[in-house]
Amino acid sequence: QVQLVESGGGTVQAGGSLRLSCVVSGGSFSTYAMGWFRQAPGKEREFVGAISWNGGNTYYADSVKGRFTISRGNAKNTVYLQMNSLKPDDTAVYYCAVGLLRTTFRAMTWGQGTQVTVSS
Predict the structure, then answer these.
(1) In percent, how much of the chain has pLDDT > 70?
(2) Is the CB of residue 79 less than 8 Å from the CB of residue 5?
């Protein structure tokens, strides 16, 4: 059974940076496409970005393009989300997911989420 555990969330001032990590266990991490999503209070969960199984391709939502970077360390079974130039609108619970990546990313298994709060 695949399990995902996110970490690295916290509170940061606008303009600051955070790096989220997601450790995957119980499966073949190096074969999985991985994605990041977020859900703000009162809003639906939205796609943030995704990375292919070998890290060769990355995709981002327009709202984070140029500010957020997804990477992965297959030796550590970990995917990262580097978030720079954070804005109050980035405040949300952030989730990583294992999924299928074709023209879009379809999440199959979710982590429990980590809270990111950006103060103005």
Answers:
(1) 100
(2) no
Residue 27: predicted pLDDT: 87
Q: Residue 91 half-sphere exposure, CB side, CA atoms within 13 Å? A: 12
Token couple for 39: 């859900």
CB 79 within 8 A of CB 60: no
List C-alpha distances in Å: 112 to 8, 53, 78, 82: 13, 21, 15, 19
pLDDT tens digits, one per residue of 21-67: 999 999 899 889 999 999 999 999 999 999 999 999 999 999 999 99
- Going by C-beta distance under 8 Å and a sequence separation of 6 or more, which residues neighbour residue 33? 50, 51, 52, 53, 98, 99, 100, 101, 105
Instruction: Give residue 93's identity as a one-letter amino acid code.
Output: V
